[in-house]
């Protein structure tokens, strides 16, 4: 990875898995998915496909030498379905041929007879049937039941939020290359090389050391390749192992949209109680999560929903319950925000309902109830710092919320058809994997005799700029120019047992490990320098690629120092390990400290509604965001802007539709709309909160990947406010996404 990455991207020179130079004799795989949502497989006939021209082999469950299992949290997901299918698109067979076209053509020759069983797509129905994954979980604080009697205002309602297709530009892809001595080299478009390694070893019944998984870069992932890249890599590896030929499997867009999981749809019930001053006294909610057919990461996603049920607010009495419901849809999976957006939209809907009941501006209720430093979350963790309040107040004043609301009211009264609406959306997002054990990282740093430096970590460059940040951190730690530092491909052979690049933590965890490894090297090199210069090691520093004694630069350069150290037989490689301190969580008591810190901020979102045509657009999103001491303001700004647009897409545009048989209807880019430049707000202003002394992460920075997505929730409520300038719409039933079709329905009172 180099600083030239962005340049390569715009020139389309970047190499993704499908662009890698293929070894001679590479074969191509295509996957046959179940045409039925739920049923028992009677006959799977692949004979015609196997005989088709160019086809090397067809594989089914019977051909798997090891375990037919890819479930990472729960062992409930076969690599290839054997006797029962549980969703449309579930892999049943794989064709391998000498060209991708022939592999795809041969799929048409496969026939399957399936004895259909009843299929359920609605999570509430699944819950009624008792078809749950794990037990329902409840996190509680205070005494909700007793608190209702003290409430002056109580609102209740239901919120339904839809799924979301990741639409990473690079589809799921893997290239498996057999190596001598029963080993295999796999290039995978994954966020989690070690998960791919573990899954392939399991499926092939070989030790993990026989499998090297390598990732150069991934063309977008957004959570879709945290758990779900493993299936495609394992299929490619299975074929490569059986045929002893390199095998490439790249899903085309259509197959990717049909076969892979998306953001979890939720349907939730809430109740919020307020005292006479508008303070939140009690909040209760039940979240029915549509998990799809297998567990995947659903229980972890649901846990994060519960941890974010109260978003940025302090509420003394809370009881929230999450129910993971099994349906006959492709397994829903990680998606930027990981369950937090689905929960935050519920508390925001509750606050809007309360504000409309009390006839007060929503932002005043929000502001009155913001978390302060020292407040306790329902899961027992204490809020550190005042960033929810500081960012909210800063956003309200800096972006003139009060005067703009008055102005909007005036303009709305003066216009019959053009209506405006404004919403403030605070976000408070916990940083760390909620699965405590995942909060670990290793780094391996080599200094070569010419002074160039090679850094290997678990971080996968997905376009989020983690390589840029790591490079900067390594260079700063060693006191040398960034041009001397190379961030290597992510490989399971260089760093073992890697956690996924996920949960916004890649720069935090891997950066901390890199700094530790660099610190070890620096100490060794300083000792050598001190010996050369004849001064105590404490007086030596390395800055600007040269050795300094106290405040004075010496003539000893970084290169000369490294050469000398090598001659003196000093180890110029260092491995370091970092585990986030002080994390713990007790799932029996549902109390603990699951997060290292929180990232907070607030957005002001303004929408413009054309009430005649029933269309709306988001005019502006203005944000005060806490990035700590940013490791790279440009990277962080890009992350915030991209996340906001993705969040607005989820709340107002992107709609997954499934037919009564469980077949995805929106499986092309013509039927599934995602934000483009034209759709994006004209203005996205990002102001970084300064002076955030409470930062917990490396070099006083803060994680940035996921939190800003939830600013996009404000888009829903801004458009809703504009619609309310036309007619009253009840708040008890909120449905996302708020598409143009739904806007029109609301305008017509449906
Ligand atoms: N993945 C995961 C995540 O395994 N655990 C998490 O807590 C998480 N959070 C956000 C995104 N991915
Ligand atoms: Mo993720 S939702 O893979 O951080």
Automatic annotation (TrEMBL):
<dbReference type="InterPro" id="IPR036856">
    <property type="entry name" value="Ald_Oxase/Xan_DH_a/b_sf"/>
</dbReference>
<keyword id="KW-0560">Oxidoreductase</keyword>
<dbReference type="InterPro" id="IPR037165">
    <property type="entry name" value="AldOxase/xan_DH_Mopterin-bd_sf"/>
</dbReference>
<dbReference type="Pfam" id="PF02738">
    <property type="entry name" value="MoCoBD_1"/>
</dbReference>
<dbReference type="GO" id="GO:0005506">
    <property type="term" value="F:iron ion binding"/>
</dbReference>
<dbReference type="InterPro" id="IPR046867">
    <property type="entry name" value="AldOxase/xan_DH_MoCoBD2"/>
</dbReference>
<dbReference type="Pfam" id="PF01315">
    <property type="entry name" value="Ald_Xan_dh_C"/>
</dbReference>
<feature type="domain" description="Aldehyde oxidase/xanthine dehydrogenase a/b hammerhead">
    <location>
        <begin position="11"/>
        <end position="118"/>
    </location>
</feature>
<keyword id="KW-0500">Molybdenum</keyword>
<dbReference type="GO" id="GO:0016491">
    <property type="term" value="F:oxidoreductase activity"/>
</dbReference>
<dbReference type="InterPro" id="IPR000674">
    <property type="entry name" value="Ald_Oxase/Xan_DH_a/b"/>
</dbReference>
<dbReference type="InterPro" id="IPR016208">
    <property type="entry name" value="Ald_Oxase/xanthine_DH-like"/>
</dbReference>
<dbReference type="Pfam" id="PF20256">
    <property type="entry name" value="MoCoBD_2"/>
</dbReference>
<protein>
    <submittedName>
        <fullName>Xanthine dehydrogenase molybdopterin binding subunit</fullName>
    </submittedName>
</protein>
<dbReference type="InterPro" id="IPR008274">
    <property type="entry name" value="AldOxase/xan_DH_MoCoBD1"/>
</dbReference>
């Amino acid at each position: 990875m180099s600083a030239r990455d962005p340049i390569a991207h715009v020139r389309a020179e970047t190499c993704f898995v499908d662009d890698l130079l293929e070894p001679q004799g590479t074969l191509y795989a295509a996957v046959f998915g179940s045409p039925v949502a739920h049923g028992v497989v009677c006959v799977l006939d692949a004979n015609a496909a196997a005989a088709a021209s160019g086809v090397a082999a067809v594989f089914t469950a019977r051909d798997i030498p090891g375990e037919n299992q890819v479930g990472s949290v729960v062992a409930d997901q076969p690599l290839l379905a054997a006797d029962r299918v549980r969703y449309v698109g579930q892999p049943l067979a794989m064709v391998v041929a000498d060209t991708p076209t022939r592999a795809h053509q041969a799929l048409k020759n496969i026939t399957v007879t399936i004895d259909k069983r009843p299929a359920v797509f609605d999570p509430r129905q699944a819950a009624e049937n008792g078809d749950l994954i794990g037990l329902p979980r409840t996190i509680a604080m205070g005494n909700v039941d007793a608190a209702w009697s003290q409430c002056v205002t109580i609102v209740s309602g239901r919120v339904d939020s839809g799924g979301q297709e990741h639409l990473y530009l690079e589809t799921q892809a893997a290239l498996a290359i057999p190596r001598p001595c029963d080993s295999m080299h796999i290039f995978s478009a994954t966020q989690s090389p070690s998960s791919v390694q573990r899954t392939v070893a399991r499926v092939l019944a070989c030790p993990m050391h026989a499998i090297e998984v390598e990732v150069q870069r991934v063309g977008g992932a957004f959570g879709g390749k945290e758990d779900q890249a493993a299936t495609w890599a394992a299929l490619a590896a299975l074929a490569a192992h059986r045929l002893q030929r390199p095998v490439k499997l790249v899903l085309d867009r259509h197959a990717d949209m049909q076969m892979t999981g998306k953001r979890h749809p939720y349907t939730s019930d809430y109740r919020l109680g307020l005292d006479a001053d508008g303070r939140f006294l009690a909040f209760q909610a039940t979240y029915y999560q549509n998990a799809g057919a297998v567990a995947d990461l659903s229980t972890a996603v649901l846990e994060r929903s519960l941890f974010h049920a109260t978003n940025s607010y302090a509420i003394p009495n809370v009881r929230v319950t999450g129910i993971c419901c099994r349906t006959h849809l492709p397994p829903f999976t990680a998606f930027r925000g990981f369950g937090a957006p689905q929960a935050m939209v519920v508390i925001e809907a509750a606050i809007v309902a309360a504000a409309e009941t009390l006839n007060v501006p929503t932002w005043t209720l929000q502001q009155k109830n913001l978390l302060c430093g020292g407040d306790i979350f329902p899961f027992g963790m204490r809020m550190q710092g005042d960033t929810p309040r500081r960012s909210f107040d800063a956003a309200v004043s800096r972006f003139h919320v009060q005067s703009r609301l008055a102005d909007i009211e005036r303009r709305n009264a003066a216009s019959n058809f053009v209506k405006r609406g404004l919403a403030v959306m605070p976000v408070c997002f916990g940083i760390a994997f909620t699965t405590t054990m995942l909060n670990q990282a290793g780094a391996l740093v080599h200094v070569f005799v010419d002074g160039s430096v090679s850094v290997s970590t678990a971080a996968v460059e997905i376009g989020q700029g983690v390589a840029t940040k790591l490079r900067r951190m390594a260079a700063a730690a060693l006191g040398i120019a960034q041009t001397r530092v190379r961030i290597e491909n992510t490989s399971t052979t260089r760093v073992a047992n890697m956690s996924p690049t996920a949960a916004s933590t890649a720069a935090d965890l891997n950066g901390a490990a890199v700094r530790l490894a660099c610190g070890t090297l620096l100490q060794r090199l300083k000792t050598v320098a001190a010996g050369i210069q004849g001064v105590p090691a404490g007086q030596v520093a390395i800055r600007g690629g040269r050795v300094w004694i106290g405040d004075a630069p010496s003539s000893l350069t970084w290169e000369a120092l490294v050469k000398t150290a090598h001659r003196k037989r000093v180890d110029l490689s260092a491995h370091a390990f970092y585990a986030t301190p002080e994390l713990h969580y007790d799932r029996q008591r549902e109390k603990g400290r699951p997060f290292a810190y929180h990232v907070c901020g607030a957005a002001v979102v303004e929408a413009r509604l054309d009430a005649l045509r029933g269309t709306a657009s988001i005019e502006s999103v203005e944000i005060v965001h806490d990035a700590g001491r940013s490791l790279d303001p440009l990277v962080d700004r890009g992350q915030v802007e991209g996340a906001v647009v993705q969040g607005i897409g989820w709340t107002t545009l992107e709609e997954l539709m499934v037919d009564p048989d469980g077949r995805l209807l929106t499986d092309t880019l013509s039927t599934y709309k995602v934000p483009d430049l034209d759709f994006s707000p004209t203005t996205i202003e990002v102001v970084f909160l300064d002076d955030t002394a409470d930062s917990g992460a490396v070099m006083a920075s803060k994680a940035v990947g996921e939190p800003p997505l939830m600013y996009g929730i404000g888009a829903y409520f801004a458009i809703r406010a504009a619609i309310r300038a036309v007619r009253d719409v009840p708040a008890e039933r909120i449905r996302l996404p708020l598409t143009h079709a739904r806007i029109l329905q609301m305008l017509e009172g449906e």
